[in-house]
Amino acid sequence: MESAFSKSDQDKKIKDSLSFSSVNDINDEIQIEFDEKSIKRAEFMQSKAHISTFKEYPVYVEFYGINYSIPVHQQNVHGKQIDEEIGDNTRKLIIQNIHGFARPGEILAIMGPSGCGKTTLLNVLADRVGTKNIEGTIKMNGNKPTKDSRRFIAYCTQEDVFFPYLTVKETLSYTSRLRLPREMPTSAKLEQVENIIQILNLSKCSNTIIGNMRIRGISGGEKKRVSIANELLTDPSVILLDEPTSGLDSSLALELVQTLKELARKQQKTIIIVIHQPSSQVFELFDKLLLMADGHVVYFGDSADTVDYLANEGFICHPNFNPADYMLELLNNPTTKQKLISTYAKSIQSDSSGKLVVEKCFKRPTIPDDSRIIGSSKHKWEATFIQQLTILTERSFKQRSKAVLSKLNFIQILGIALINCLIWFRMPYTEASLTDRYGLSDKSSSSCDHGETLNNE
Fold first, then answer.
1. Quick one: the chain helix, strand, coil %, rounded to 5?
2. What is the pLDDT of residue 170?
3. All residues at 6 or more sequence positions from 287 whose CB lies less than 8 Å from its CB, including other chains
4. 393: number of CA atoms within 13 Å, CB side?
5. CB-based contacts of 182, cutoff 8 Å, min separation 6
């Protein structure tokens, strides 16, 4: 009896050891896969340093006292304007006294609940809203941004706009041929496209059309990664990203932010990212954090110190709780949100613009001839006029060929031509038939326009 029990115990131990070893094998395979991806990312960063427009000096971004307002439109009540109550110069503040800085080699994350002004701030930093409604100071390496400096700023928006009939590889190839330096050979540009496709996990969909709402193509997460790849190809000094992880699962979001982190660290890129609700692993990759609520600053500083800052204010985050989720939970509560806004405003009461905070924490090394760093490149356009004409013509033909040269379009044109010939057959060449000929041309053009609309749908 005892031998039977001992034998069963031995069998159980053998099964447990086998299952444990299989789990270890799976973990080893996963670790090897992550190591291979890390090696590929490292090779990609190294290759970009040699064949791209890598800058000799990095770019330091600082901003303080940023206010953005919009005019309040006049309202009508029963057909009568109420200008006396509203006033002619009433404006609504979207963001107020926003301040912060971003160093090369670091990631500045802008977080906050929906509608707090994160995207507005990013648009202001990217100079996409003009200067009419903006107050405050924005500096790059100690100088105000110019039109030439915008060439070294990449901006990935939330909404992706691409040609739906082009594949992922074609889209990136045309971008590289148009925007990369003309000194680079075409083979090096296409090699760069292949590298970034592998790094951002776009190999499976590289030959798939992008598509749109009516045409099936790549997924929303893949389209977001194509948007990021489209900007990273140009090797910008400052990279602004608006919700880059939206539409991605937690694993791909982590891998994407890790890629951005390595890009910032190894090539001294300045990265400012707007993110809504990152995972705890993604949150740990951020160097600086700008927390916003209702257009105000709630916290700015090291992301690692955020939990301690909230604990000092009486809001203790549990050890196993995601700090990003806890912050959004606090800022979605009107009482705690107002308390955090008031507390931070009192801490910088001596200088509401935040200039002293930036000057105290932000130390930019002395670099000779700062204006040269944010200066213009050798050429106004990287591609010559002939190259632009050739590339854009080729791209337009590829985009429209599938619709224009489709079987449906051929049948439609032949049908319209046959109907018009039957109606206006043997029309006499007299003055009385001029209006009939005019009707023929008008009918033909309207029929072609209607057919083009059907093809687009």
1. 50, 15, 35
2. 92
3. 103, 106, 107, 108, 302, 303
4. 6
5. 379, 382, 383, 384, 387
